[in-house]
Amino acid sequence: MYLVFDIGGTHMRIGVSSDGSTITESKIVPTSQDFDQGILVLKQTADELSGGEKINVVAGGIPGPLDKGKSMLVTCPQLHGWIQKPLKAELEKAYGTKVYLENDTAIGGIGEAVKGAGAGKKIVAYLAMGTGIGGTRIVDQRVDSNNLGFEPGHQIIMPDGNPCNCGGKGHLEAYVGGSYIEKIYHQRAEDIKDVSIWNEVSKYLAIGLNNTIVHWSPDIVVLGGSVSESIPLEKVQAYLSEFLTIFPQAPDIVKASLGHDGGLYGALELLK
Ligand SMILES: [Zn+2]
């Protein structure tokens, strides 16, 4: 039995797979801010889903940069209680098997690149549009080599612009991240009906996508996360075709297709 998980700042999705390529069963539970309690809930849910069957291998995503050995979170604004806590070691002890950890955006992107909207494409640019903006470059179904990870959400789209939670100014995230949209327009993205607001947000996103496309040269751009479900794609594409003048045409911009399960499928891929 394979155990996979995707831990977010508020919820964690846990799944098991008996064949290593499909999710047999999965469940969403709240993420505890307390690390020990969080591990306990993770183990209890895994036991419930596996029906007591032996777990042979474990893989999952966590919401933030990992240490070099990919064993724990090193920073994470949403999960302070998990920072520098030995997640990999605790799970290895609990299951007596190998445990693979990766950044949650990376596993979400791998899932989409292998089984979702980016399937069949060589270079996939994945943008996770949740409360903040994450992203990853995937080449041949693997996260591309990198030194410190990928952070397209923290590219500057406006000199001296809106403050970003990371300490910077004018970052893409500070204009199109879910929590920033809520702060700027006093509405949650899914409730916004005003066309002029979406025009503005789409324009900012198109600037960010233009920059990501000229640097990453992807075959396709996949947008995931809750904000991507509300954003009017045709508007973003229209702005992008206006901005992106150096390439003969923009790559396809599509919405993610695996929903919240993307991370679990990506975690299964980590095991291959
Ligand atoms: Zn930032």
Structural account:
It comes from Candidatus Daviesbacteria bacterium RIFCSPHIGHO2_01_FULL_40_11. This is Glucokinase. Belongs to the ROK (NagC/XylR) family. The protein has helices spanning 35-50, 87-95, 104-115, 173-176, 178-185, 195-216, 226-230, 233-243, 262-270, and strands spanning 2-7, 11-17, 25-30, 57-62, 99-103, 123-129, 133-139, 142-143, 220-224, 252-255. The chain is globular. Helix content is 35%, strand content 20%. Strands 3-2-1-4-5 form a five-stranded mixed β-sheet, with helices on both faces. A five-stranded mixed β-sheet has the order 8-7-6-9-10, sandwiched between helices. The chain contains nine helices and ten strands. The protein is α/β, with parallel strands linked by helices. Bound molecules: zinc ion (ZN). The site of zinc ion has 6 residues, from loops.
